[in-house]
C-alpha cells in the first residue's frame, strides 16, 4: 500500500513523514488557486531531492483556467513527461491526452460520481425513526413523521458510483490510458466494482468533499467586519478561515473551506483493503482547497 | 496551443446569430397546447417506466433530476403527449440525466430503445458518461444533449462530449457571460450550445459537482387516525425539509478568527455571499442576452421542475418580449436591462418588488475583479 500526502501549499511540506512515498500537489476546487510555475518547480525539486513520487492535481476549470493549466503542463512535461496528473474536468483530460500523451492520467474524485451527502449514513442504516412535526393547520392535529425504510436496491446506488461500477466506462478509461481513479472514503460504505489489476484506486482520507461552487462563499468574507455578507473580491480568505456547520439532521459536522464543503471520515469504509483495488491512501494533513 | 487562439471558430461563423429557441418543460398532455400557444420552440420532459420507478424511487432524483410528479410514468399518456407535440412540430427531448450504476443500465437502455421509435422524440438529455458511451456504441439515432449535471465549464469539455456523440451541450448555470463567450469562441467542433435562462436557482453550488442528497419526496400522508387528532406521515427522510446546502452556519472554528469579532453576524445562511432577504428563489440571466445576442446559442432553457404549464408559459411570454426588445436596433444595454428587470418583476413578483443581483444565476456584478 502506497502512502501519499496531499498538499496545496509549500508550507505543508512540513507534514511529510518518512513513510510517505508520494506527494500530491495542486488543488481540485478552485482555478484561482492554481499553482504558480515557481511554486510547482519548488515542490517538484523537493520531491526529486527526497526521492518521492509526484502527482499534480488539477481542478475543474473555465477556459481561463485551462490556459493556466496548460502552461503548468508544459513545465511539468519538460521536467518529467510521465508525471502523474489527476484531472477533475474532462476538458483538462482532453488537453492532457492530446498535447501531453506521456502523462500518466488519474481520474479525479470530482468526476467519480459518488454520493456524499452525510444524511445517507443514517438513511442506509434503515432504522425506523419517528418524530412529531408541526401541524400546519393551527396545532389541532398532531402529526407524526415516520421514516420509511429505503429499498435494498438503493445500496448499490448510494455506496457505488457510475465510474467505479460500469464496464463500458472502465473500457473507455483504459483505452485512454487512465488506470487509476481517486475516490472518497464515504462514510455510508463503499462499493467498488473495478476490474482486478486493470484499474487501481487511491482512497482519500479523512476529508470527504460534498459540494463546491464557482460562487465562492468565503471570498471577501473578511473584507469588512461590519458587513461580512457584502460582496467583495477574493482575497484568498480560504487560506485563513474554515467555517463549521452542525445541524441536528446531519450525522457529521460540515466544514466549509473556501468554495467547498467537506466532512471528516477517519474510519476506512471498506472491510478489506487487501482484497480491494485500493493500493494507495492519500492523506490530507489539513483541510485544503 | 489551440486553447490560446482567439480566432472565432467555424461554429460561430457558420451558425445563425441571435436566433434563440425557447425550450420549456412539460409533464402532462394538456401542457403541450398551452406551451405551444405561449410560443415555445422546443420541449423537454421526463419519462420513467414502472420497473425503473419501483426499483429506484423517484423521490431521490436517481433516474432523472425532475423529482416526483414531474415525469410521465404511464407510457400511453407519454406517447400521446409526444404525439401532440409532433403534430405541432415541437421537438421533444427526454431527460435521462441521472448518474447511474451498472445495475441500472439494462432497464435504462430498454427505455431508450423503446422511445427511439417515437417520431416526436428528437433526442435525449444525458449526464452519465456510461450512458453516453452506451448510446454511442449502439449508434443511437436521435440527438444527444449533455445536461448541466455533466458539468461543462470550458470549450475542451464541449468538444470532448461532441467526440462522444453529443449534438448539444447545456452550459453550467454559474458561468459568467465572459466565460460563455470564451467557450463559444474556442470550441473546435460544431456542437450546439444551450444555456439555462430563467427560473429556479440552486442555493449556490454547481449542479454537476454537488453530491448532497436531494430528496424531493411527496410525503405519504396516512389519514387514518390512530387516535383522535393524530395523523401519520411517512417519508424516507425525516429531515426532508432541510437541504444540506441550505443550512445555516452557526459558528466559526479556527484559531485565526480574531478579525471576526461578532459571531452573530456570521450566523447567517451558509452561503456567506447570499443575502437571503434579497434572494427571492428565482434564477435568471435574461439581462445577459444583450451581450450574448451575437453568439450562436441554439436554445434558452426555462427551468421548471414540476411547475404547471400555466406558470411556465408566463416565462415563455416574458422571454418572447425580451427577445423582441433585443431585436430593436437602437436599444442600449442599460435600456434593455432595465426593461428586463421590469418584466421580471412583473412576471415573477406581480410588480410588487424588483429583482436583485442575488436573483441572477451568476451576476457579473458579484464576480467583478474576482476571476
Describe this structure as you would to a colleague.
The complex is a heterodimer of chains A (289) and B (371). Chain A is of the alpha/beta class. Chain A has a domain at 2-114 and 154-208 and 265-283: Aldolase class I (TIM Barrel, Alpha-Beta Barrel), CATH 3.20.20.70. Chain A has helices at 37-49, 63-79, 90-99, 119-123, 154-159, 162-165, 167-175; strands at residues 2-7, 22-26, 53-57, 84-87, 104-107, 130-133, 142-147, 180-184, 200-205, 207-212, 243-245, 254-257, 260-264, 278-283. Chain A has an eight-stranded parallel β-barrel with strand order 1-2-3-4-5-8-9-14. A four-stranded antiparallel beta sheet of chain A has the order 10-13-12-11, with no helix packed on it. In chain A, helix 1 (37-49) runs parallel beside helix 2 and helix 2 packs parallel to helix 3. Chain B has 371 residues and is α/β, with parallel strands linked by helices. Chain B is built from twelve helices and twelve strands. Chain B has helices at residues 10-14, 29-38, 50-55, 75-87, 105-115, 129-137, 155-163, 177-186, 289-292, 309-327, 333-349, 364-367, and strands at residues 21-25, 42-47, 71-72, 92-96, 121-126, 143-146, 168-170, 192-198, 220-222, 230-235, 251-252, 297-302. In chain B, the strands form two sheets. An eight-stranded parallel barrel of chain B has the order 1-2-4-5-6-7-8-12, surrounded by four helices. Chain B is globular, with a radius of gyration of 22 Å. Chain B starts with 9 loop residues before the first helix and ends with a helix. Mean pLDDT of chain B is 81; it is low at 1-17 and 249-277.
* Strand count of chain B: 12
Helical content class of chain A: 10-25%
Order of helices and strands of chain B: HEHEHEHEHEHEHEHEEEEHEHHH
Distance between the termini of chain A: 25 Å
> Mean pLDDT of chain B, as a whole number?
81
> What would the principal axes of the Cα set say about the shape of chain A?
globular
Overall structural class of chain B, as computed from helix and strand content, comes to alpha/beta
Rg of chain A is 21 Å
Number of helices of chain B: 12
Q: Any idea what the CATH architecture of chain B is?
A: Alpha-Beta Barrel
Oligomer: heterodimer
CATH topology of the domain at 2-114 and 154-208 and 265-283 in chain A: TIM Barrel
